[in-house]
Specification:
The protein is α+β, with helices and mostly antiparallel strands. Helices cover 14% and strands 31% of the residues. The chain is built from 1 helix and 11 strands, in the order αβββββββββββ. Strands 2, 3, 4, 8 and 11 form a 5-stranded antiparallel sheet that branches. A 3-stranded antiparallel sheet has the order 1-10-9, with no helix packed on it. A 3-stranded antiparallel sheet has the order 5-6-7, with no helix packed on it. β2 and β3 form a beta hairpin. The longest helix is centred in the N-terminal third of the chain and has 20 residues.
Length: 148
Amino acid sequence: FGMVVVLGLHLVAAQKENAADKSDFVASNDGFVFVCNTEEISNRRARIASLAGERIAIFKYDGKISALSNVCQHQNGPLGEGKIIDGCVTCPWHGFQYLPESGAAPAPFTEKVPTFKVKVVGNKIFVCPEALPPGTHVPPAQIHEAKI
């Protein structure tokens, strides 16, 4: 019975990911793709988007936005389902950590994930779907709150 439950959960997860992978995102003239609005992501959490066949985790933290591969280098865990702890993206499966600006694990660890260029215009988050080499530093986009 237990194996049937686990298999069922894997099938449901795969179906959900397939639907997300088929999301329609259209690149603008500069190559960036609108992903979501800043208020759609909780602080120190992420939104996962599938762009150009790659799952990307877009993290919001301390007034900034960074994007990196959604795939942990340890056992392919979903980084976007984790959160930022002590300034690092923390994989929910085994706690592996990566710096959001570079995708590099803090020393003494050497794991690295690809990063992506991001920009924020008003409250809209845009990501360039072209992955940069693992460990490439990308300055985070700043969120500028509207003055009332």
